[in-house]
Amino acid sequence: MNAPQTALHGWAAGEAGRPANPDWTIPQRWESYTPKEHATWATLYRRQMALLPGRACEAFIDGMRRLPIEADRIPNFEQLSEVLMRSTGWQVVAVPGLVPDEVFFDHLAHRRFPAGQFIRRADQLDYLQEPDVFHDVFGHVPMLMHPVMADFIQAYGVGGLRAQRLGALEMLARVYWYTVEFGLVREQGALRIFGAGIVSSAAESVFCLASSSPHRIGFDLPRVMRTRYRIDDFQQTYFVLDRLDDLLRLAEIDFAPLYQQVAALPALAPDAVLPDDAIITRGDSHHHRARPPQ
Ligand SMILES: C[C@H](O)[C@H](O)C1=Nc2c(nc(N)[nH]c2=O)NC1
Ligand SMILES: [Fe+3]
Predict the structure, then answer these.
(1) 11 three-state secondary structure
(2) Is ipTM beyond 0.95?
(3) Where does Fe cation bind (predicted)?
(4) Does 9 sit in the ligand 1 pocket, CB within 6 Å?
């Protein structure tokens, strides 16, 4: 997934035009999707479902199985929300694309997941400027069926509003990026994917587990808060949780004292390796050496 330089954490600057609602929600108007748009969904869906068995974590596969997410059509947010609400109290709301941080956090804090209403162009399957319906619904929504992830993403919303007040948003956004978007987890002695940015990308679903290029390092909160990330290419480092339930502990920690500690330390490059890192695999960086940062 390649994205141009950005002002907003991880996504292209220039949020979509401000819609009528102050919370930036819009009607999904599911009936207005064209056969071509449903066909784009079908292509992306089939490509991922051929890759993810044996790569995606059990919670993702289980969540996908229990939700009204079909192969041949863009899901209907109302039908998704009916099942989600019964399971973890979440719902999916449509937005035109990127929304301002505080709007994003407020939705998450109220268990409303803002999903891009549009789908990417058929001739740009691997090029994403802003989160579209495939990234948000295929990538994020299945994990919202997992009670711990459901609590963690709500806590991120609440914590995000607080981090903004504390001027610590960059550190918190790194935690979100290296878990919810690009996280790996141990399962039965192997590594599995739970990050939405990975499960919705064909190339990175393979790269993150098979390539000798990236580092794979045991998750450590202050370490992750210090580590910058790549927005223009595959990640140079993946952080690995021992179990998804560790997110619950994270959601209960008071981040404020940690922000002060971490703010006093230098930020780390995306490909840094520290002496006290729990290294699972040390990468040879061959992929990124061939592609210097844009
Ligand atoms: C830090 C925060 O998570 C990040 O900047 C944002 N992400 C998103 C966003 N808006 C949408 N729709 N999706 C995101 O993932 N706005 C802000
Ligand atoms: Fe996302």
Answers:
(1) strand
(2) yes
(3) 135, 140, 181
(4) yes
